[in-house]
Amino acid sequence: MNSTITYIIWRIFQVVPTLVIIILLAFGLMKLAPGDMADVIASQSGGASPEYMDEMRHLYGLDVSLWRQFGNYLHSLVTMNMGYSFLYNAQVSELIFSRLPATLLLALTAILFALIVGVLLGIIAARYRGSFLDGFISVFSTIGFATPLFWIGLLFIVVFSLWLRWLPVGGFSTVGAEHSNGLSYFLDILKHLVLPAFSLSLFFLSVYVRLTRSAMLDVYHQDYVRTARAKGLTEWRVIFRHMLRNAALPIVTLTGLEIGGLLSGSVVIETVFGWPGIGRLAYDAVLQRDINLLLGIFLLSSLLVVAMNLLIDLLYVALDPRIGRRRS
Question: Can you tell me whether residue 58 is helix, strand or coil?
């Protein structure tokens, strides 16, 4: 069998124990949390009779053995029935999947912007290393790396929404915009997306700048680069045609590692801007101790991280087939 295909199959099978650990961890966290769902509902309602508490425990399957609860938990995962959210009075799976598109739109916009602009700025900094431009880009990336996300978001709101009045303060769209024609609604969503996406992307953009600059300088004096220059290719053609491909592996690695940070960062940004995504949902669930909702968000976020890391590993093979041959 082809070594690359062997590596891909082996890597897919490696995901299985990771998923098992995630499932066990989620169940363990639910059991280790102080109180149970009945206690939380009672505290939210200001108290409840013992009979009502017993009824709630029976309703949520908390009055059976731990093994039976784990079996019910596995069954709920298979059937995509992750329980009921008392906070929103709705099924957890319906809530999560209704908020998922907004979070994916925000996260993908942020990571694409950070990747494209960060890599370009890193290439420019490496190309003109030691110059004023290199120093300016380095200072910019350091500031972006060190500044907290919530502070960036609040600063952008003050400057672009309150002072300049260029962009809306927050939300997904203007009230009533969904009833307008498709193009107007789309443009309204984009207008609301600018500030949260740029705020979320700034940290990751700064990391891409630093990593790309370092990776480009590592290959700047390699033999194949000298050969390309000796053939008369322009410097920019050497950079984009030869150097960038060989510097791409650490950039791809970072993209996989940043998925978890992107999801955690979305909690902060969605809360600051009132963006109706999973991050805001998680924030509300933590405040109200909605255990079922928190558990569902944890599982989905973990699965997204695992899936993205698997995709990144497969991209490795596409960029450098030798990786598949070495690991198969």
Answer: helix
pTM (two decimals): 0.80
Q: What tokens does 255 get? A: 């993209």
Q: How far, CA to CA in Å, does 118 sit from each of 24, 269, 286? A: 38, 20, 33
- Say yes or no: 110 and 86 in one domain: no
DSSP letters for 255-320? HHHHHHHHHHHHHHHHHHHT--SHHHHHHHHHHHT-HHHHHHHHHHHHHHHHHHHHHHHHHHHHH-
Count of structural domains, the chain:
2
Which of 210, 206, 195 has its CA nearest to residue 143? Answer: 206
pLDDT in tens, 262-308: 777 788 888 889 888 888 888 888 887 787 888 888 888 888 888 87
| 272 in the same domain as 289 | yes
220-245 CB burial, b ≥16 within 10 A, e <16: beeeebeebeeeeeeeeebbeebbbe
Q: 176 with 75, same domain?
A: no
Tell me which residue range forms the domain holding 120: 93-320
Domain boundary (90, 118, 144) is at 90
Q: What kind and span of H or E run contains 84?
A: strand 84-85
